[in-house]
Amino acid sequence: MKKFLSRAALGVAAVGVFALASCNGTPDPTTTEEKPATTTPEPTTTVDDSVNEAAKKLLANLIFEADGTAVTGDVSLPAYLASGDTQVTIHWESDSELVKVGTTIDEAKGAFTGAVSRPEDKAVTVTLTASITFAGGEAQRQFTVLVNPYSVSDAIDSFTFTYNGGTVEKDFEVPTSFKFNNQDVTIAWSIPDSSKELLSVDADGKTIHVVQQAKREKAQIKAEFTYKGETLSRNYRLNVFHVRTALELLHTFYDDPGAEAYTLKGYVAHKAGYDASYGNGYLYIVDQTLEGGYYVYRAYCSQDVL
Q1: Is the distance from CB of 122 to CB of 78 less than 8 angstroms?
Q2: 178-195: pLDDT as tens digits
Q3: Which of 21, 47, 130, 169 has its Cα between 20 and 30 A from that of 83?
Q4: Taking every pair of C-alpha atoms in the chain, what is the biggest distance, in angstroms?
Q5: What are the structural domains of the chain?
């Protein structure tokens, strides 16, 4: 009995060794070993850019005068390039709505129009791309412009001072605010030291008092504009005089025709006569009694017209 059990135990041990050998030794003949996949590389191709060389050289001749500058208004975009007798049309594209490229060519200028819209707050750089097709090739070239927002300087340029360069004889009023680009612009008025004997600003800030002068005197008035928190000043020039009589106005008109515009009430043009040597008639401005007039005008005409 003891001998039988020993053989049985030995048999079990042998089976165990065989099983281990099967697991760790030679692989099962029914399985196949996987091999790593291989790929065939795509053949590389080289792009021959020489076909575009002629187009690139031609486009290098393009001059866009606004390139690299700050713009506040529309820009002209050249529409053509010439190569011998060949005229090549340039196509433009913008990367921003702030510069819109027109679709028609102004033939007088030979250019498209880049319509500029001003940004609200900060300056914006806009890239403009010019493209051409020439000699079977293509080329592109980029340019930039800086589009500035509206400034107080633009607001000042939009303002008209009624009395600038004119003559004042009595007190007048000036505006203290106006609208620009749908925003308020305020104006503070003052008188430079050199003109304080001729002009003064009332406490209301809008009435200018005039000290009449026997002779026409030159004066200045200063306006300080504020727009979007930015302030800038501009001086305006005018003349200070006294309230003139009608005859004084006529003398002024005669001595300096076209310098000012006058409204004369109660005076009419009166035929004075005909000068045969010059072939013209001459007129007077007179009062309604035909007294106290002044010669003001000659006109070429035949005598039978008068």
Answers
A1: no
A2: 999 999 999 999 999 999
A3: 47
A4: 173
A5: 53-147 (2.60.40), 152-240 (2.60.40), 246-305 (no CATH)
